[in-house]
Amino acid sequence: MSILREDKKLNLTGSLPTSNAKGGSEKTGTPFLFAFYIFAFFLSVILGGCRERQLIESTPQMDTEQQFWVRVLLLDDIRSLRLNTTSSFTVLYPQTQTIQARFDQVDMPINVSVSAGKIIIAGRSFTSNKVIILPDDPHIFNLNGDDYRGKLELILNPDGNSFDAVNLVPLEPYLAGVVGAEMPDYWEPAALQAQAIAARTYCLYIKKRFGSRRGWDVTKTEANQAYRGLGSESSRIWNAVNSTSGQVLVCKKQEADTQYAIGNTQYEIFPAYYSSTCGGHTENSNNVFGDSFEPLAGVPCPYCKDVAKPSFFFWPMVQFDKSDVTAKLLKKYPKLKQLGEITNITPARQSNYGKISRLTQVKLSGSTGKNDFLRAEDFRLSIDPTGLKLKSTICQIVNMGDKWAFVSGRGWGHGVGMCQYGAEAMARKGKTARQILFYYYPGSKIVSVY
Fold it and tell me: In b/e form, how buried is each residue of 352-378, taking b as 16+ CB within 10 angstroms?
């Protein structure tokens, strides 16, 4: 999933005026300004104190069942990192959960590295190819300057020259680090609650489908869903997570190996995709990701245009050098080397929704005379992996000499599932989280996994 969060937290500090609106700066009441500064100081202390106390609250669900833990890939293929904890911590071997070491250092940076095929923690080597670092209560650690809850697993790579860092975190604390990264915490509670349920659903689906094949379930990036640990937490975010605790979306399933049964109907969890701004109509998942679920067929969205920033809903023309486009595509898809230099890019398939037309497949023609095809979303993220310029596939492709231009752009993201700005607009109109979710995921139901 490519999820883009463009909003930042509201600036609550602002700037103090040095003159009034009518230019009377010489006589604007210095005592008043002094009192204002004093008030602002105490307010910042109070608010800052509250925020700090939030960060040291004990991590919930540390004793939950293993199926409700999430393995988040924080860093991969690294040779060292800086670890810090405000509590003592224990080093465990994952297979046996036996204690291998105890570190009583508090609030002091610890170097973790790899040498001679061994993981080195604060100068002490460990022969296992995996170790788990378990901080004492409140179960928080700092990795290269960022705070996370739960445990830290270090996995030595097969070559013995590098390792991966994986955050083992219970589901609800994980979501507190996701919802605040995916939506501004000042958004309407109903939108935040809808985001929490969608993110919980997506996580459990990806964990079930891919987790058994690798040492982690999801990444911390928009490749799955953005996760920033404690940096995204706030009381409003935790309220959204706690008020929807355990709730996930499910849809009808035909096969017998169902996960849930409601009456005589069998249900399964599905990937509850979402994106920033759909541009007026969400897209069928089959056209973007190749999977087919009833709630992901696409729906009209008259909402996001009311709240999305103009630059999110309509984006200006962007251009890319043709040689760079060819180089990026051939690097990511070696099969395209048969095309030689890419000489033409044309729509092969598109979804038409009245005034909105989203590219779903592009045809690539090369200097060798051969052609090939790519899903439009794969094409978009190949030539602009950040998604910050080529924001969606609702656009037209124009040949401009030595450049490819993308014009009439609309929306931001892949457009499948819930439109986040649309959800906020619906919430502002008084819709509940359930109403929002059932609109963007038609035919779905909400069940509790615990």
Answer: ebeebbbbbbbebbbeeeeebebbbbb
Alpha-carbon distance of 362 to 413, in angstroms, equals 17
Q: What is the pTM of this model?
A: 0.85
**Residues 105 and 91: beta-carbon distance below 8 Å:** no
- Compute the distance between CA of residue 410 and CA of residue 356 in angstroms, rounded to an integer: 9
pLDDT of the chain along its 450 residues, tens only? 433 444 333 333 233 222 334 333 333 343 443 444 444 444 443 444 444 434 458 999 999 999 999 999 999 999 999 999 989 999 998 877 788 889 986 778 999 999 989 999 999 999 899 999 999 999 999 999 999 999 999 999 999 999 999 999 999 999 999 999 999 999 999 999 999 999 999 999 999 999 988 999 999 999 999 999 999 999 999 999 999 999 999 998 756 555 777 777 788 999 999 999 999 999 999 999 999 999 999 999 999 999 998 988 999 999 999 999 999 999 999 999 999 999 999 999 999 998 899 999 999 999 999 999 999 999 999 999 999 999 999 999 999 999 999 999 999 999 999 999 999 999 999 999 999 999 999 999 999 999
C-alpha to C-alpha distance for 276 and 424, rounded to whole angstroms: 11
Q: How many whole angstroms separate alpha carbon 443 and alpha carbon 450?
A: 22
Nearest residue to 202 (alpha-carbon basis) of 2, 424, 413: 2
